[in-house]
Amino acid sequence: MASLISPGKPIPNDDLGLGLRTGPARGVNKDGSFNVRRAGRPLFRGYELYHSLITMGGFQFLALLFLGFLVTNALFAAVYLGLGMEHFIRTGGSTRLDQMLDAFFFSAQTLTTVGYGHISPNSHLVSAVAALESLLGLLSFALATGLLYGRFSRPHAQMCFSHHALVAPYRGITGFMFRFANRRSNQLIEVEATVSMSFLDGDNQTRRYVALELERSKINLFPTSWTVVHPIDESSPLHGMTEADLRRSQAEFIVLIKAFDDTFAQTIYQRTSYVADEVLWGFRFKPMASLGPDGSTEFRLRDVGAVEAAEGAQSRM
Amino acid sequence: MASLISPGKPIPNDDLGLGLRTGPARGVNKDGSFNVRRAGRPLFRGYELYHSLITMGGFQFLALLFLGFLVTNALFAAVYLGLGMEHFIRTGGSTRLDQMLDAFFFSAQTLTTVGYGHISPNSHLVSAVAALESLLGLLSFALATGLLYGRFSRPHAQMCFSHHALVAPYRGITGFMFRFANRRSNQLIEVEATVSMSFLDGDNQTRRYVALELERSKINLFPTSWTVVHPIDESSPLHGMTEADLRRSQAEFIVLIKAFDDTFAQTIYQRTSYVADEVLWGFRFKPMASLGPDGSTEFRLRDVGAVEAAEGAQSRM
Amino acid sequence: MASLISPGKPIPNDDLGLGLRTGPARGVNKDGSFNVRRAGRPLFRGYELYHSLITMGGFQFLALLFLGFLVTNALFAAVYLGLGMEHFIRTGGSTRLDQMLDAFFFSAQTLTTVGYGHISPNSHLVSAVAALESLLGLLSFALATGLLYGRFSRPHAQMCFSHHALVAPYRGITGFMFRFANRRSNQLIEVEATVSMSFLDGDNQTRRYVALELERSKINLFPTSWTVVHPIDESSPLHGMTEADLRRSQAEFIVLIKAFDDTFAQTIYQRTSYVADEVLWGFRFKPMASLGPDGSTEFRLRDVGAVEAAEGAQSRM
Amino acid sequence: MASLISPGKPIPNDDLGLGLRTGPARGVNKDGSFNVRRAGRPLFRGYELYHSLITMGGFQFLALLFLGFLVTNALFAAVYLGLGMEHFIRTGGSTRLDQMLDAFFFSAQTLTTVGYGHISPNSHLVSAVAALESLLGLLSFALATGLLYGRFSRPHAQMCFSHHALVAPYRGITGFMFRFANRRSNQLIEVEATVSMSFLDGDNQTRRYVALELERSKINLFPTSWTVVHPIDESSPLHGMTEADLRRSQAEFIVLIKAFDDTFAQTIYQRTSYVADEVLWGFRFKPMASLGPDGSTEFRLRDVGAVEAAEGAQSRM
């Protein structure tokens, strides 16, 4: 572990903005979210509403829409019932239930602007409430459908990462590497990778952060997969560490991928992390592509994490 | 103050584009807007309308929408009344008020395209006006609902800054620092900070601007908070100044934060400023995060400005 | 003119991508468009339609919308008439004109989905055509209203530039300068300027391009105005030139401004150019801002081009 | 071929992220798509649906919309028929076919919210289904019309490239060059070009990648065309190669163009490639522009690939 805090290697602390003093748990979850619980933030604020509605689950969102539709109609139905159903032209029955349901369905026909007209206002007061409801319907459906389409078209990366990172032979020395591919068929351009390591400093057990130099930090085109490699030469903070060292220092490798989505002309990001338990020693990645009979390359996405034993593997980086 | 205009330190003037000669007032307000009044700009121009409608208050916007709905209906009602209500199939009363209200509500049912049909055109002229009104309704509701959703989904930063900036011990020397956190739960990436100081030059009392070097000007991830630090070493324009110097030179620290909003794939900016009265000497920031029982980090947003007395504080930078 | 082609000053040719050999006319028009006529480009192609509809004049666009509404209704009315108006439930007259207008207005009520119902289909064939028309109406109004809102909300810079560029004293030497301000009240951030000169090379009268070094090419904040300055020192390609030299070489100064619109989170660009006739010698810009009684700065947009005679003006750069 | 693997020229392998070991076929197709077949990717996943709907052919998309409309109406018609057409107020006939078509057209009038009312619900159950259908109609038409407009307004580059790349005399040496122009009339700004060569390494027949240095890799304005040139000096990996060498090594030149679309404020990319068979030796590009009678420049897009024999052509680069 001494190599991590040797005087000759100035370690930029807090390089990621992760000003955390976490315990044994990981700082970045596998899906890229931060392992942080926010307290003191108001649960319901205007600026959070849009964010919640865009990011909540799809089923939850549709249920909320449906519920909002039911509740709004129930409220307007109550107003119409309060004004009296004698203010309507209608053909329905005269029981209380008939009146309530007619009021409810008239409301629904007004809110959606379908307006069949078999139930229609027969007094100015009801007409005024119905005009207001149709205005409200147009505005609230604009928000609902805007959100629906916004959710549908929201750009988001769908990289699939190898489940393990590897410590494997690399050009005569050893390299720390992982692989990822694009799960979607959109075209990604100018893909950039940043890898940082967080670890417990041997002396005072405070968590430190250090950026890892990559063999290559940007590629122009990304048709298939990219194996990101940190060469473990003498200048690497990993140099000389063993598998036990990695676990003892609770090392976590934090990955940030940035890319330009050519199909939708937007920049997207994705994060993930590897903890010491997710680092394999003595394996290498199997190829994901092979040449098809027609000369094109067949690419197997499911093999992104496929590994095989590597010769010449070392127990020390 | 001599340090500010010493010959060895070339000061880039007008570095921010704030070509202002303000008096004692601040150049940038606490909410990031500029303290400038624009004259000679036409009050109503096409290119200002969209901007006004997007940035006006929410209540004001909804009131304007409602007013527009009322006025448009009143105008079309006047046209229908002018043509004569005998051109309509209707079941309503025959008083003047009945006619006026029927005209108004027919207009509302046409503009919203709800079209119940219990009032409907019975002449070609009225049909033509109604066709025009429904076309106008579709187009104007498209603008209204587009604006409503545009306002709702407009990206904007919601950083909360510490109320005070601090002059506090920092790695053996003194540092000028402030802290900020993200109030929203959207994920911010690649956060950049720029800090400039504006001050009255001691000799000729003209306002000058100088950029302050930061310990770190960019962080990759921003899960919690960031304490931005300008180390006051010998090359700092603040070096050797006292609290009284700061006030006398009417110093203002102008902060520009840039970040990429990972949730919505957009770049956002936020500005703020600290004047001399908002700089505390001899305090340091209290931690905002603590380790929860389950190993995750709890982060208290309300503590972004919490300070405590610092040992070894100096009265001179 | 010798200074423009002196051997010590390698001039990057074609620096702007303006691979033009124009005659005396300017390459970039005052409004930033290129003085180029494109031939051989198909007049009507799918990928041009959206562009044309977004950039055409507002009155023209609305007229096109209205015309499209009339024509579509006329076409569907013809179909309904062809099928026979006896297939409708209607209360209108029986003359040919009555039938035609009823068909037209039924079409309008279907296309806009207002659907009063006083005219309604009474045969399956007419119902099928009407269902098709309402589907078409929803889709085409989606395009029309999308375009309407897209036009309304399209980001575009509204810089106003000084009408003249100046050759004026600047820090002991001479500078080439112009001034611009933001006409809109949106907040611009990180404003960048690029200035290039195009001129006829004295020897072979071919047009060359050279980038001009600026005193400052980027400002962080842009609350008021920015005077962009090219200092004419010995390394400047303008060094030693007279007003007559500028005109003889048909010099044109091409300006590209880039900014980030903080209000709408989008990057915007604006271009303009100054030809030799638009360069004033021996003047300087008058201030645009003055201190208001309440300490805020009043900024006069109309003074962006206001100049006054400068002392110490030279007839040679 | 020795020049390609000479020790003094370190060749960055895999520079483009094209981790492919293709055979004789090209890696990047003429239209910029990758010559890769993806296996193991689920054919139908939520995150692929939006992408497919945006990128499929226009006729296919409209057919899908129409089919969806038919199927949805057929399904709801089946529900209404199941409930019994006696639950409707209607004027139509009593045969089974009449009932089926009335149910179908009532559904269509509800889904599009046109709601004439000549067929209208006469029971609460039918009213409830109709309310649900109108809600579904509003939501699904929001997606359909959002997609329709999203397709219409999606930014995409429409560069047209010269069909051949040339090896031609260039400033005393030889250059590898191609030309492209913007087919659309939108304004492109800050256009950048990247050119890489992929080839079979003579020794072990594995495919290698090398970036080619360009005379200029970025231009600020792009009014007409740009001839991108790689000067073949001694440091070029092409230096000394003959036409036969190019073919034998199955060389492919991969082009990536990046530009900012000034009209729509979006960054766009376009790719293409040239294989050895598409490289002409001993020709040069003919001018695309000529001076019009009014002093403006006429630009012929169709001449982007026009070439003429070049004097002094060499058979070796």
Automatic annotation (TrEMBL), chains A, B, C, D:
Residues 95-148 form the Potassium channel domain. Keywords: Ion channel, Ion transport, Membrane, Potassium, Potassium transport, Transmembrane, Transmembrane helix, Transport, Voltage-gated channel. GO terms for biological process: monoatomic ion transmembrane transport. It is found in: Membrane. It is a multi-pass membrane protein. Residues 160-292 form the Inward rectifier potassium channel C-terminal domain. InterPro entries: Ig_E-set (IPR014756), IRK_C (IPR041647), K_chnl_dom (IPR013099), K_chnl_inward-rec_Kir (IPR016449), K_chnl_inward-rec_Kir_cyto (IPR013518). Signal peptide: none annotated. The keyword Ion transport applies. The chain crosses the membrane at residues 59-83, 103-119, 125-149. This is Inward rectifier potassium channel Irk. It comes from Geothrix limicola.
